[in-house]
Every structure is written in structure tokens, then in C-alpha cells.
Amino acid sequence: MSDGFRDNEAQSRFELEVDGAIAFVVYRKTQDTITLVHTEVPPELGGRGIGSKLARATLDAVRAQRRKLIVKCEFIQGFMKKNPEDNDLLA
Q1: 53: helix, strand or coil
Q2: What is the rounded distance in angstroms from the CA atom of residue 2 to the CA atom of residue 17?
Q3: In the 3-class helix/strand/coil scheme, how is 16-48 assigned residue by residue?
Q4: Which long-range contacts (CB under 8 A, 24 or more apart) does 7-11 make?
Q5: Which residues of 29-68 are buried (b: 16+ CB within 10 A; e: fewer)?
Q6: What is the pTM of this model?
Q7: What local confidence, expressed as pLDDT, does residue 2 receive?
Q8: Is 6 exposed, middle or buried (0-12, 13-18, 19+ CB in 10 A)?
Q9: For residue 82, how many other CB atoms are within 10 A of its CB?
Q10: CA torsion angle for 14, 17, 61, 32 (degrees, to 10)?
């Protein structure tokens, strides 16, 4: 996993902390699936590839949790189009 990446289950989001700012992906979990709802990267982290690093760490975490993925977040949908090797995660 990326340094600074964590699953903040209390807030239902995956987080990536960089330079004191937190980018995150909001999720909803069931026993078998995880739905990625929304991704947010603070403006001060923009243009540094932080969103892609967060997306990669998020998909790796979903794989490690052995859940299937439902993607409602447009950013993650776009990331997966560029990385079709992750489509096996889709529910």
C-alpha cells in the first residue's frame, strides 16, 4: 500500500494523506461488495497525480478485502477505463 494510505472505516472512506492534506474515496460496504461513491482531492494536492495514487491504493485495498466492486464515482470509473486489468474486481 502507499505510504499515508488507510481505510478509515469510522468515516467510510479510503484516505491518502500527503503533506498534511487528505484525499479520499467515500465508500459503502456490504459483506460482499464495496461501492465507491465519490473521490475528493484537495486543491492544494491537484496536478500531482494524487488522485491516481489514491485510486490505485483503493483498488488494491478492495482486492485485498476480497470484495467485489461497484463504481458510482466518475473519477474511479475513468481510472478503471485506463487500467482495464482491474475490471475483474467489478461486481
Answers
A1: helix
A2: 10
A3: EEECCEEEEEEEEECCCEEEEEEEECCHHHCCC
A4: 7/61
A5: eeeeebbbbebebeeebeeeebbebbbbbbbbbbeeeebe
A6: 0.94
A7: 54
A8: middle
A9: 9
A10: -10
In this structure, which amino acid lies at residue 58? T
Write the pLDDT tens digit of every residue in 24-67.
999 999 999 999 999 999 999 999 999 999 999 999 999 999 99
Q: Which domains does the chain have, with CATH numbers?
A: 5-89 (3.40.630.30)
C-alpha cell at 10: 469510522
- Alpha carbon distance 34, 90 (integer Å): 10
Helix axes 74-82, 50-64, angle to 10 degrees: 80
Rounded to whole angstroms, how far apart are CA atoms 28 and 59?
Answer: 14
- The residue written with cell numbers 483498488 in the block is 59
